[in-house]
Each structure stands twice: as structure tokens, then as C-alpha cells.
Design a protein that fits this description.
Helix content is 32%, strand content 25%. It has 557 residues and is an alpha/beta fold. It has 3 domains: 277 residues, Ribonuclease Z/Hydroxyacylglutathione hydrolase-like (Metallo-beta-lactamase, Chain A, 4-Layer Sandwich), CATH 3.60.15.10; 148 residues, Rossmann fold, CATH 3.40.50.10710; 102 residues, Ubiquitin-like (UB roll) (Roll), CATH 3.10.20. The strands form 5 sheets. It has an 8-stranded mixed sheet. A 6-stranded mixed sheet has the order 8-9-10-11-12-18. The protein is globular.
Length: 557
Amino acid sequence: MKFSNNIETKVFALGGLGEVGKNMYCIMHGNEIIIIDAGMSIPASDLLGVDYVIPDFSFLKKNESKIKALFITHGHEDHIGAIPFLLQTVNIPFIYAPNQAVGLIRKKLEDRNIQYKNLITYEEKTKVNFKSMQVEFFRTTHSIPDSHGICVTTPNGTIVATGDFKFDFTPIGPMANLHKMAQIGSRGVTLLLSDSTNALNEGISLSESKVDTALSEVIKRETGRIIIATFASNIYRLKHIVDTCKRNNRKIAVFGRSMENNIEISINGGYIKNKSIFVTPEEANKLPNDQVCLLCTGSQGEPLAALSRIADGSHKQIKLQSDDVVIFSSSAIPGNAAAIGRTINKLYMKGIKVFTNTSLENVHSSGHGNEEELKLMIRLIKPKYFMPFHGEYRMLKKHADIGVMCGMPKENTFVLGNGEMLSINKGIVKRGEIIQAEDVYVDGNRIGDVSTAVMKDRKIMANDGIIIVIANIDTNKTSLLGNPNIITRGFVLVNENEQLLKNLEKISKTAIISKLKAPINYNDIKQEIINSISSYSFTKTGRKPIVLPVIMDIKKS
């Protein structure tokens, strides 16, 4: 396809740079924008009350008329999780996604009662043409079916985004299409955007078939109930767990909403065929232990997930038994190691045999390629310029270094942050402008209402509590009516600190009276209360609670 246009092509990320999560990448040429992925990330532990972190859609909202389509590489949450929020904010004419991702997106939209008709399933042979761009796809190997890389031809050169990938030469599912990758590379690629998740890991990632063998051996060998915690989105892992259980005459009971949804979608999509193997928890409890497998969420130690509740004995349907065997078929996402450790310790304390991924028991393999696989991708695509994506800064930097090791000039590699643009003009890539691309917090269904100031207040309340001062003032007589009422939450234990609270009451009274003069200035009164209470509280307790004055205007004749 030939184009004739001298306008610069812009490439930028709204998420996914400097982080493993909320992937969202954009290519803009003139009056056309295509988006690749729209993911979310799980909030860090210090983001109190936040449910999800999503990309900032401000730029897309301002340029809404230019958006032509959203293309999805695969169905993991860090690539599709923000779609419901995106559709509520910006008009997206079309969403193109592979088969498995389409099922997951539909379920996600149904759960939020979002009607969207233009969700289109693409295959590897699909080509989508716009006025200035052409989009095509190539199959990759990942931990979910139907993962693809995306190739975008523009007037200023070809841009390739790998999506998430590894090179597994004995995969459970279809092989990655190395021939098509090499073919795209032979045509000439201007810019490569490549998955950096495992850039710090040397060598080659473990084949999924090795995991299949290891899990099969454990399931065949053990005589008690098998309890497996894994990522609900790792469909190939779920598939071979199902196949292995069938071979070993075990029925499967599923626990956890995300696990149930993914199993249902995988059955409907034809990825899991043994539907009769699944039983209810009640049926599982009636079967002999050597005929039972419990498949559940909680591989990351989430406190409310099924495995965590089983481990601490709070699960309503499943109680641990002495011959149970628990398998963590997963790896720790950064930041989750402590939570996983707590769950494992609870299991050990109850005498349960636990398998985790080790050199002796290969019960998990990453869906992302290690250093040698990243080199292979660069050699196949043969880009002139290189922008690592999908990774924390250290991963991106290492991946850029790998590009240099593969013969790329260092000045042709770009380690960027979200919002930093690359400009491509006639095959030459340079750094461009910077646009707004901050984290956006989702609290329930509210998008962007949770500001930095709100998060600061939440952290203070969590750590130091809150003091509410309620006072009645007669504005006619500029006088205080009675004593202020002090209410605290999370500050001190009331029963053990009565004198402290009485002192706070006196300090509040003094502060109010000192500012009672006509005309009444409420802001001055409130600020005096805040300053006096804050100073005293810190002196006596070493804590800095939020102080919230409430002034009631009561006019008495």
C-alpha cells in the first residue's frame, strides 16, 4: 500500500512505560489516530480506596474526531482492563480484537451494562486500511490464546508493536509465526516497540510444555486433593490442568469470580473442551480426595481471593484437610511477594504440602521472553529505531542495551516515559513534544475524581486519623454557644484518652473565641482551629490527624 503524505507520524504511550501495566500506545498521522491496547493496573498498597489505575484519556478526548479504531493485542487485564472506562469517556468507532479477547471484552462490558456494537474479531490474515495507515497482525506466543503483534504501515515508515510475547518452540497452543515476523522485517521496519517485561532475565524462558509435564507429575503422584492457584487469564495453563485432571480421573471445582468467568469464556470459545469435568463445590466435597482438583484464584496472596480464605479457614465451602496439596502455578508480581508469603506460611502452619516454582518443580513459566528471545525478535524485525515498551524503567533500559548488543546505534534507541512523543519523518525518528499522561484513579465507577489531594488525605486518615470539631455560633451576638463537640476516628482510643479530648475541646473553644469579632469570618475561625488542634495533637501524640472544623450558624433573637 502506497501513501503520499509529508506529515510527521507521532508515536506515544499513555501507559505502559516505566511500569508493567495499563498498556496504551498511540500512532497518529495527520487526522488519524489508532490506539493499541487499553489496559489497567492494580493500585499499589498506598493508594487507599482506589480500585484501578487507568491511563489519562485527556489527549484522546481533545482529539476524539481523529480516532479511527482501538486494536487489542490480547485479552489480559493490563491490555483490555481500561476499555469500559475509555468507552465512557471517548468515542471509539471500532474495536478490533482476537477471538479470546473479544469474549473477555464482551463479558467486561456486560458486567458494566455498556452497549457497544462495533467489536470486531480479527485473524492473523486480517488487514485494516485507513486513509493514511494500514494495520496487519502476526501471531505470537503468550500465556493466553490468540496473542498478536501489530504492524502499522504509515507514510513515514513501518511501526511494529510486538504485544506480549515469548518464543516457545514446544508451546501448548499454536506456534508464533516466525516466518511472518521475518517477512515484515525484510520489508523494512522503521520503529520497533517490544515487550520488556523479562529483559533482566538471562537466557531463554521455560517452555510451557515443561510446566505441563511438571504439573502432570504432581497431580499423578499425589493422593490427596489438589488445590491449584494460578492466573485466571492463563488459558493455556487452565487447559492443560483440565486435560491432566481428565487423564487422572479428577473432577474440577472452580473458585473465584475471575476464574469462573475465564473458564466459561474458554469453554464457549472452544479452548477448553472437557466441560463435563467441572463439578460444583458441593459435589467436590462428596468425592474421594484423590478424585478432586480445586482450581482457584489467589496466586498473588490477595486477602479476599479463594486461596487466601481457604488458607485462613474462612472459606464457606472448602476446609483444608491434612492430605491436601497446594500448587502455586504462578510467579509473584512485583510488590506481592509478602502477601504470597503470608498465605504460604498459613498453609505450612496447617501442615499442608505446598509446591511453588523452583528448579526442582517447574510448575510455572512466564509468558514473556527472556534476554535471548528479545534478541531474536530484534533480529527478525530488524528495525532502524527501537523503543522498548511494557516495563519498568530498569527493564526498558536493559532492553535498549540489548538492542545495542544486537548492532543498533545507541542514538537510535529511545527509553521514554508516558506522554513523551516520537516524531517520524521520512524514516527518521526523533524525540518530540510531551503530552499529559498521568495516572488516573478509579474509585468504584468514578473516573478521575480521586485527585492527588484526596489520596493525600486518605493516607493521613489511615495513618493518623481525623478530628472533627463541631461548634455553634450566634452570629448576631458574635458568641460561641456552649462548648465545641470533639469527634475522632482513627486518632486515639476515646476511653483511654478522655483528658486529651477535653483539652482539645478547651483549645478549640479558645481558638474560636479569639476570632469572634464582627463581621464573622468563617475561614479565619476554621484555620485557627486547625492550627491550634494540629499543633497540640502533634506535641502530645506525635500524630498529624486531619482536622475538620464544622461551624453551625445559629441566630438567636
